[in-house]
Write a structure and sequence with these properties.
With 255 residues, the chain is α/β, with parallel strands linked by helices. It has eleven helices and eleven strands.
Length: 255
């Protein structure tokens, strides 16, 4: 089975992530295939909107920690470069992006969902950034996306605690845009609405929205610097191992 399925419907493109079970974990191979699918969509001028979803019951629980835990500390950076390219490609694609979210969207999965312009979530959606609990900081744009969608205090709460926000609360807080029992159908309906507008104007508006309040690329460099520092401290390796062994992590002293 393909790790990323690309389907064209009228003037919309649907990218479906087939991650590793359970929870559609993003291995480096899955992340690269998703990136390639998104990049292909960006080169299709007839596509007016890109919809991103996970296969089955979940969007994605983020990076595959079992894969990362096998790497030496110095190997984490090279491994993460695939995810950096995926994050950058999602932001660079010229079409409006819509996430259709079912079930878990955690870590890198949450960042892919919240990195889309519009998020349609099912009532069972669960969105969170648990990186701090694993000795890491988010490395695919999470701090930026949360600050754009939430008041500072709520963004800080989610990032500092790794709290998971559930469907109805996520809608009430503005973390997601719409809630629907069938998020894909709603996303397709939104794509049809987008297709009624002038494509040049819509693409220009997407560029303008990305510049407010902070351009993704500039802020992302600072985020990646923090990510690399966390990895270098050894806390990330400890967090991944503790997660796999189902025990509390023992982190070193503050940076």
């Amino acid at each position: 089975m393909a790790r990323a399925e690309l389907e064209f419907r009228a003037m919309a493109a649907i990218v479906t992530m087939h991650g590793e079970e359970p929870g559609h974990r993003l291995s480096s191979a899955v992340a690269e295939d998703v990136r390639a699918a998104i990049e292909r969509v960006g080169g299709e001028p007839h596509v007016r909107a890109l919809i991103l979803q996970g296969a089955g019951d979940h969007f994605s629980v983020g990076a595959d920690l079992k894969e990362r835990a096998k790497l030496p500390t110095e190997g984490w950076q090279e491994h993460h470069e695939t995810f950096e390219r995926l994050a950058a490609t999602l932001q660079a694609v010229p079409q409006p992006t819509i996430a259709a979210v079912r079930g878990w969207a955690l870590g890198g999965g949450a960042e892919l969902a919240l990195g889309c312009d519009i998020v349609v979530a099912a009532p069972d959606a669960r969105i969170g950034q648990p990186e701090a609990l694993r000795g890491l900081v988010p490395g695919m744009g999470g701090p930026q996306f949360l600050q754009r969608r939430l008041p500072h205090g709520l963004a800080a709460y989610m990032l500092y605690t790794g709290a998971t926000i559930r469907g109805a609360e996520a809608l009430a807080l503005g973390l997601v845009t719409f809630m629907d029992e069938d998020p894909l159908a709603r996303a397709l309906a939104i794509a049809e609405e987008i297709a009624m507008a002038a494509p040049g104007a819509v693409r220009a508006l997407r560029r303008l929205l990305q510049r407010q309040p902070t351009a993704f690329a500039a802020a992302y460099e600072e985020e990646l610097a923090a990510w690399r520092q966390a990895v270098g401290s050894g806390d990330a390796a400890e967090g991944a191992q503790a997660f796999i062994e189902k025990r509390p992590a023992v982190f070193r002293d503050p940076l």
